[in-house]
Amino acid sequence: MKKLPIMIVVFGCLLLAWACSNDDDDNSGSTDATEQTGSQDSNDSLVVEETGASPVVSFYSLDEEDTVEVTPGESQTAQAPLLITLKANVGNPDGYNYVCEWRIWDTSNENGEYSPLVKRYDEETTYTLTKSGGYGIKLYVTFTMGTDTIEYESEQISVAISESKLTCPDGFSPNGDSINDQFRITAQSIVELDAKFFNRWGTKLHSVTLETIERVEGEPDKLILWDGKVKGKYVSDGLYLLYLKALGSDGIKYDIKKSISVLTGFHENEESEGGGGSTE
After folding, report:
1. Among 65, 98, 142, 216, which residue's Cβ finds the most Cβ atoms within 10 Å?
2. Is 13 among the domain residues?
3. Model confidence over 107-158: pLDDT tens digits?
4. What does the DSSP 8-state code read for residue 130?
5. 223 near 182, Cβ under 8 Å?
6. Are residues 182 and 228 in the same domain?
7. Domain for residue 127, yes or no?
8. CB-hemisphere CA count at 13 Å for 136?
9. What count of other Cβ atoms lies within 10 Å of the Cβ of residue 24?
């Protein structure tokens, strides 16, 4: 009978140790849950911080004869008229509503982006630049979810439009030898053009505008005004009159009236070899 109390005491100690062990396990589980919650909050925070956009301005570049993409912090030079496409590429909205705002401004304006030439509120839109000079482009996106607001502002995208240039030759030789077969002008940043060809009696033979003109492959500054044909047949050799009106991106007006020579029987090889018969 004397051993019973000792056994009870020992058994009680074992129960107490077991209870403490369970408490430690519970506390450990609570700590893990806290750490997991903190990790989740951290992940949510990362998602919010990554919410934004990757804007890009793209256009067909005559200089490179390809489509060029300009991203924030970059710059590019091009000719006018320049049709640019603006894409916001909004990423990770994560349940947020958002509104896009594009601003395009003349960089010579001291107010810059705060006095833009144009504002657009579409994720993707287009705009045509027609005047020479420098332009800044930025995208602003406002994300909202309840009372939470995130403001995104891109770096500046810069586009420079070159000044205009236009020169005309005095004639051409449409004889099919692939040398000077077309009447071509050299033109840069021309935003309007209307050219007409007449014979000596004032009859209009051919006309072309900037919308219908053809560019020389590999030479984007070369514009083809006439191939020397009327109704599919070459005109006779002689002098013809060109009337050309054009407007440059820098506001310069070109008003050209000149006689041009058409020499279908001219061959460059003949001249270089001192003339003579046919080279064929």
Report:
1. 98
2. no
3. 999 999 999 999 999 999 999 999 999 999 999 999 999 999 999 999 999 9
4. -
5. no
6. yes
7. yes
8. 17
9. 10
What string of DSSP letters covers 45-112?
HHHHHH-EE--EEEEEETTTTEEEEE-TT-EEEEPSSEEEEEE--EE--TT-EEEEEEEEEETTSTTG
* Contact between 261 and 170 (Cβ < 8 Å): yes
**Hey, how many other C-beta atoms are within 10 angstroms of the C-beta on 117?**
14
- Looking up residue 259, the CATH number of its domain turns out to be 2.60.40.1220
- Write the burial class of residue 74 (CB in 10 Å: 0-12 exposed, 13-18 middle, 19+ buried): middle
Residues facing 53 on adjacent strands: 90
How is residue 241 written in tokens?
């009159």
- Where is 190: in which H helix or E strand? strand 190-198
- On whether the CB atoms of residues 254 and 248 are closer than 8 A, the answer is yes
Q: Could you tell me the CATH number of the domain that includes residue 95?
A: 2.60.40
Quick one: 136 and 210 in the same domain? no
Count the domains in the chain: 2
With tokens 């000719």, the residue in question is 79
Q: pLDDT (tens digit, 9 = 90+) per residue, 11-24?
A: 344 344 444 444 54
The parent domain of residue 251 ranges over 165-272
